[in-house]
Amino acid sequence: MVPRQTSRDLRNESRFEVLRALFELGPSTRQEIARHTRLSTATVATLVTEFLSEGVLRIAALERRTVGRPYERLAIDPDRGRIVGVDVAETYVAATLFDIALTPISHGEVTLDEHENSQAYVVDGIVRAVEAAVGTGAGEADRILGVGVSMPGQVSPGAGVSVFAPNWDWHEVKIEELLAQGLRIPVYVDNPLKAVALSEMWFGVGRVADSMAVVNLGTGVGAGIAIDGALIRGANNNAGEWGHTLLQLDGRQCRCGRRGCVEAYLGVHGIETSLAEIDKDHPALRQPLQRDFIDAVATGLAAGDPVLAELARRTAHYLAAALGDLVTLLDIPYITLTGWTSTALAEWLVPAVRAELPDHVLPGSLPDLTVEVSRVPGNPVALGMAAFALEHFLGRLGLPSPASAPIARRRTRPQS
Amino acid sequence: MVPRQTSRDLRNESRFEVLRALFELGPSTRQEIARHTRLSTATVATLVTEFLSEGVLRIAALERRTVGRPYERLAIDPDRGRIVGVDVAETYVAATLFDIALTPISHGEVTLDEHENSQAYVVDGIVRAVEAAVGTGAGEADRILGVGVSMPGQVSPGAGVSVFAPNWDWHEVKIEELLAQGLRIPVYVDNPLKAVALSEMWFGVGRVADSMAVVNLGTGVGAGIAIDGALIRGANNNAGEWGHTLLQLDGRQCRCGRRGCVEAYLGVHGIETSLAEIDKDHPALRQPLQRDFIDAVATGLAAGDPVLAELARRTAHYLAAALGDLVTLLDIPYITLTGWTSTALAEWLVPAVRAELPDHVLPGSLPDLTVEVSRVPGNPVALGMAAFALEHFLGRLGLPSPASAPIARRRTRPQS
């Protein structure tokens, strides 16, 4: 029953390595790609020829030498088409149009009323955000090769294509089908934890490490996990729900129904609850919107508000304890923080978490443990979803380049 | 930086598949092995020839047909040599002598005084347990191909070969070297969570599933984790320390120094603490030895003791919550319980945990979730360590057959 890789899988992985080298290095010669990937020059030459013939790569420059043939510098051809990455949250839809080198071109955003949750309303919001990102430029819409959409809650890409979104009370919604009808473009749906992990693997610490947890702090909290270069999906594509692991048995009520979850302390409502415990009349609690609350906390902290300093202290304590569990269980060396709470409060949370984390981690897992705010640019959910959509487009071209498939899926073909 | 498999890695993995098929099927023809492993018959024939020439396999039977050549049935040759697997705990050393088909032959056990923790004392105890298992039979000692020793605490096999054992206050002890001097045989050291995971992968639910958590309940508690067929080791071989993740922030003092760890509720001392909270004068608490305490609890439960029924209820509540975290974080479909607490109290804990687990797991991770007591026979730590020692012996023969190496380690060679 142990799954097994085949020669074909190796070739597909090598193909991804070539793309990844080009994302990292920019325009490169075949020799540079071979050196970077440690693939043979023959393998690189074959894969490059495939990509050139499908227009995925182009010759970006010719480099002349004093003798011999000039070197060709290869690059992903941005003109090959467009990819859209979409981040659907409970309060907004943010869409980014990318070229296939995953350089962002334009954005579109639509606000969602969190009290309106019909399928038609949300699908319409997604379609409008994509249209806003794509714009009305000549023929732009026709150039889109794929759309990747991150949906909150539990998502089963491929087979089931259903969504269980706790806040929306959706069950088994055929969201890929609905969106494909609305957008008339191939749509791939996944969940945001998988998207932030993939963007970190392609464009963040994945460049220096194979194992990482990408911890998202926002309305909800969760962790995208990669181990030894593979995105951990779990048996039902539901891995990473760190926000619903315990901080406190039988503690605060969580919106998932359980008590004492990490999210009940580190989600925005959890941080609001902590503030109310310290000072229920604090003005920051009067902000009706979650983002405004977090911004008010950041502003107050910068101004030296002692109540908010105590809030930051408690929140850092909860975060250090909850990150400690991730490290203790998986002995994972890199934690990157993402999401708007992370961004807004990094200055106060990160140093405190680094200082306290050793109290929560067994000594054996401490060497080289790194906690930092993610350096992935832009909206990492939209970027990760665009990377998934690109992966799927390449698969449809007959050039599979898997960067995220769990090992078991990559290894299903019998060896011939 | 994403590691990559090479053709040589594929061949090594295929070699392991052949061995695994023989462990599962017993004596088999090349055709049966090919069908079971989905390897080509040519590949199977090549690998079988290698194994035959090194004496790892033998022709166990010839099966005659009415026409054509007879089929050869192949089996692991039990006479090729012996492997010893050793389970070192804080209160005992248990050693099992196996043939290289990993069939147990004989056992030896030595009691350790938990207050005596010098290196010489522990090393001597291990040597005596191995000698007791091997016995004084003619030449048995000379036939031993390798010894696998599980040590409590943090173990870095290979490079560091050091141990940090919290209860023994050992730091950076070169245990492989010390043992190899004492035993004059190649020694491989690892930690018990890796051993129980490997035995489950080879001889337990690994036969039907690629992802599992093997939860060990004894003096300490922890979880061996396999995902998509790979043993999760972590950056410092320290993954699986589920016993030191939080059940209760700032809760009961744990012997690791942190407060509120799972082990402080589910380790034997944790269960004793729970009983003392219900009835500090309960007679079971008068048992001086941990195993006698657990046996007294089992006996009392069987006799209908209402205080112990309340203890079982609370312990099952803690266990369901803590297992829920494992499932929620990793979306892992199989949990097997091992260790002597699991064995002694299964009748009371398992049904209660199964009933409560859905309250602690997101709905998306519930389908097909299975919790059961491990069916791996004998001492799973000793068996797992013997499997590691066999893996290392095959590597020394020039026939690497990796069953446990993390993907990143398996994939370090450049492709040629």
TrEMBL record, chains A, B:
Example GO molecular function: kinase activity
PROSITE patterns, alphabetized: ROK (PS01125)
Record family assignment: Belongs to the ROK (NagC/XylR) family.
PANTHER family, sorted: BIFUNCTIONAL UDP-N-ACETYLGLUCOSAMINE 2-EPIMERASE_N-ACETYLMANNOSAMINE KINASE (PTHR18964:SF149), ROK (REPRESSOR, ORF, KINASE) FAMILY (PTHR18964)
Key words, A-Z: Kinase, Transferase
Transmembrane segments: none
Pfam families reported for this sequence: ROK
Gene3D superfamilies given in the database record: 3.30.420.40, Winged helix-like DNA-binding domain superfamily/Winged helix DNA-binding domain
Source organism of this protein record: Kribbella voronezhensis
Name of the protein this chain belongs to: Putative NBD/HSP70 family sugar kinase
Lineage: Bacteria, Bacillati, Actinomycetota, Actinomycetes, Propionibacteriales
InterPro entries: ATPase_NBD, ROK, ROK_cs, WH-like_DNA-bd_sf, WH_DNA-bd_sf
